[in-house]
Amino acid sequence: MDFEMEDVPVCDVIYQPTEKAKYNAHLSSFDEYKKLYDESIRDPESFWKKMAHETLSWDIPFQKVSSGSFQDANIKWFEDGYLNACYNCVDRHANKNPNKVAIYWEGDQTSESRSISYLEMKNEICRLANYLESIGVKKGDCVAIYMPMIPEAVYAMLACVRIGAIHSVVFGGFSDEALKDRIIDAKCRVVITADEGVRGGKVIHLKNIVDQAIESVEFVKTVLVVKRTGEPSIQMKADRDVWYHEKVSTQSKDHKPVSMNSEDLLFILYTSGSTGKPKGVAHSTAGYLLYASLTFKYVFNYAENDIFGCMADVGWITGHSYVVYGPLCNGATIVLFDSTPFYPDASRYWQVVDKALRKAGDAFPLKYDLSSLRVLGSVGEPINPEAWQWYYDKIGRNKCALVDTYWQTETGGIVITPISSVTPTKPGAATLPFFGIEPALLDPHSGHEISGNGVCGVLAIKSPWPSITRTVYGDHERYKMTYFTQYPGYYFTGDSAARDSNGYYWIRGRVDDVINVSGHRLSTAEIENALINYPECAEAAVIGKPDEITGQSICVFCILRNPNIDKEKAKTDIIKQVRKSIGPIATPKSVYLVPDLPKTRSGKIMRRLLRKIVSGETNFGDLTTLSDPSIINKINIIVSQ
Ligand code: WTA
Fold first, then answer.
1. AMP-dependent synthetase/ligase domain: from which residue to which, for each copy (predicted)?
2. β-bridge partners, 516
3. How many A from CA of 318 to the centre of ligand 1?
4. What is the mean pLDDT of residues 225-247?
5. 308-344 pLDDT, tens per residue?
6. Residue 563 shares a structural domain with residue 527
7. pLDDT, tens digit, for every residue of 449-486?
8. Which domain holds residue 540?
9. 109 and 225, same domain (yes or no)
10. Between 364 and 578, whose confidence is greater?
11. Are 483 and 69 in contact (CB under 8 A)?
């Protein structure tokens, strides 16, 4: 484990919630947060029972609140209740406010946008649900979704959920090989995709990638293709590929949602861990939906008629919980953004903020421009105090709350965060736990809990909450091993953190071999496995290198079989190999061709030393286990060239 004791941050800058942040607040004071938080920990059964009744619409209300434990890896919430998540996110709002805008879509070009009302969204989802049922998709089946950020991606997710199918969204930045692995792992018989995606002016050939991915996967029976760009050269394979607009629009707009048990799986989402291939993190229906919905409401202090823009892609957990499930369960208007923050220029987000208000329809009078912002969020990687301050001053203009939200694919929703309306914030701190979350800092070696303030340790959570992942799809043993075995009785996050003198949490980053590039989670093992397929590579080690823009970047050290081959070509081939196996999101930024790697006497690669070399450190710590100390100098010379 890569844990080094760091200093606990000392920070005198504290921002009290602004007037704006208190607008229509669900909590009136910081004390009220503390009181509710204490209740949620002292008596979780009563707390969650009340929240679940208030927040969700049930077909059959639950009697039992929770059961199971981390030790037995058998956690259940609301296990005798029945509900449908699509009904909760769509129908109940469409019935009440049919014309309210559900999705404000902003395409890649600034001229492309659409507004879709709750009723329109419901009709579209029902048509797709009817179509999926007509081709035999049923409760418990997995459906792969490989799409751009277009409204049909949201329809696809919710249509699956409506009929009880489990969706597996695969981010469009993954390659055909990565997509194939995920389709095979979940045995998806249906893939929903688009002809092409366009991002930052660049075309992503989604349908072609799907074709390559499933070339030899015989159990995929249907590929449903949305026409996004209308590219005429798209090949449709007879008896397998169908156009969405041809098949779906003719279906009935009425469909009765399937009543699901609380613990039936809602979706799986693949994510990287420290070992092996990506795992299908599985979430259950009621617990996940409740937690996503509540965190959305409290953390961002959602008020009716707010437009909520979360710029994450639905291919990631942030897109699941805070583009789709959390906001829609609350009946909010979401922004679906199908571009990049830098296209056509770096002001794109702020253009969208202004435009979403004006274009979303008459329901949203032009009261504000950028000043409409009330709450700013940050997620996915530690935000340094300077970046925090810039965001707070320049975008929030010192009037908005800034919430640094910490969580993971596995936690389903935000677990450590300020509540925007009440929590005093410090630049760079994720602050305090959300309701029901009991964080603990553990000594990495003994596993003992470290009490008191002004301490650091590995971050764990002490007791189950509703949206914790229930299993690794198809591999429950791996679930137990990954999260509950190293520190028995705790959920282990894989991150380290500090708790400062006020009890505020500061997340430090991963202590395992997971790299975080622009919030994209990748494992060194996965990239190293990809490199083994490059025939010239004898051995490789991958590390995350600190990067000003992306937080970390991928750095490859490779020993060539034949050191005399063209080095520049070898470097390009190495980069290509990773892009082919995983996708463009895993493109290495630096490649070093080295004569050897630092290893222990027993042959384990000491990545810790490689990390120190690339960050220019000269203190290498304890080197007694290193088999050949001269390697450090050799690599140092190559890196500094
Ligand atoms: C990191 C993304 C610091 C962390 C929601 C975690 C963060 C991993 C923060 C999960 C934050 C997420 N501050 N680090 N506010 N939020 N992380 O599964 O290392 O894609 O373990 O979920 O991102 O990444 P994932």
1. 91-465
2. 521
3. 10
4. 97
5. 999 999 999 999 999 999 999 999 999 999 999 888 8
6. yes
7. 999 999 999 999 999 999 999 999 999 999 999 999 99
8. 518-640
9. yes
10. 578
11. no
Q: How far is the CA of 430 from the centre of ligand 1 (A)?
A: 11
Q: Whose CA is nearest to atom 13 of ligand 1?
A: 382
379: CA distance to ligand 1 center in Å? 7
Q: CA–CA separation, 259 vs 397, rounded Å?
A: 46
pLDDT, residue 133, reads: 98
540 with 479, same domain: the answer is no
* Residue in the block written with tokens 């470290």: 450
Least confident span in 56-60, 68-72, 141-145, 629-633? 629-633
Q: What is the mean pLDDT of the chain?
A: 94
For residue 213, being part of any structural domain is answered with yes
> Could you identify the atom of ligand 1 that is nearest to the CA of residue 510?
19
Cβ neighbours for 534, distance < 8 A, ≥ 6 positions apart? 573, 574, 577
Same domain, 241 and 97: yes
- Tokens 């009340």, residue located: 50
Q: In a mutational test of the pocket of ligand 1, which residue from 269, 283, 381, 492 has the highest number of ligand atoms less than 8 Å from its CB?
A: 381
Q: Is residue 183 part of a domain?
A: yes
- Kindly state if the Cβ of 467 falls inside 6 Å of ligand 1: no
Find residue 60's DSSP bridge partners: 82
Would you say the CB of residue 496 lies under 6 angstroms from ligand 1? no
- Residues found in the chain: 641
Q: Which pTM value belongs to this model? A: 0.94
Position with higher pLDDT, 417 vs 520: 417
Reported in sequence order, the residue ranges of 12-83 that DSSP labels E, i.e. its strands, are: 66-67, 76-77, 82-83
User: What is the domain count for the chain?
Assistant: 2
H helix or E strand, kind and range, residue 46: helix 44-55
Whether residue 221 is found in the same domain as residue 261: yes
Q: Does a structural domain hold residue 586?
A: yes
Confirm if 558 and 531 have CB atoms less than 8 A apart. Answer: yes
